[in-house]
Amino acid sequence: MTMIYADRGVHIPVRVSVEFRVDGLILPLEICLEGLHHSVSEVLDVRPVASLRGSPGQGLRYRCRIESQLCDLYYANQLWTLVLDGDGGMRVGS
User: Fold this and answer.
1) For residues 85 and 70, what is the distance between their CA atoms, to the nearest angstrom?
2) Residue-range definition of the domain harbouring residue 15
3) For residue 58, what are the contacts with CB-CB under 8 A and spacing of at least 6?
4) How far apart are CA 8 and CA 21, in angstroms?
5) d(C-alpha 59, C-alpha 79), whole Å
6) Residue whose C-alpha is closest to residue 38's, from 79, 76, 4
7) How does strand 79-84 pair with strand 69-76?
8) What's the number of domains the chain is made of?
9) For residues 94 and 88, what is the distance between their CA atoms, to the nearest angstrom?
């Protein structure tokens, strides 16, 4: 196992595989981080949030569990970013 570290509040760009539901909801299924694919095991909450960093508009925040790690996935301005929870570390790999 390797660890990915980021300070709290740092948005890490990620590729995300999603499911587009008939009701219009977009659900993340898997993220690709540093070339490794990780399944989103559970989406705990989805809510609208204002876009950050001075960009206009709003996006969505997905509170997720990825490989037992709680994190937030943000979708805003057609970009996905990951914010790690806790001490900022996430175990990835095998």
Assistant:
1) 6
2) 2-92
3) 48, 49, 50, 51, 76
4) 31
5) 9
6) 4
7) antiparallel
8) 1
9) 19
pTM above 0.85, yes or no: no
Look up residue 86 and give its two tokens.
Answer: 């806790």
Query: 63: which residues sit within 8 A by CB, 6+ positions away?
Result: 43, 44, 45, 46, 70, 72
Instruction: Compute the average pLDDT of residues 55-83.
Output: 87
DSSP letter assigned to residue 45: E
Question: How far apart, in whole angstroms, are the C-alpha atoms of residue 94 and residue 85?
Answer: 20
Q: What is the mean pLDDT of residues 51-76?
A: 82
Measure the CA–CA gap between 23 and 77, rounded to whole angstroms.
21
- Closest of 68, 94, 75 to residue 85, by C-alpha: 68
Q: How far apart are CA 83 and CA 14, in angstroms?
A: 10
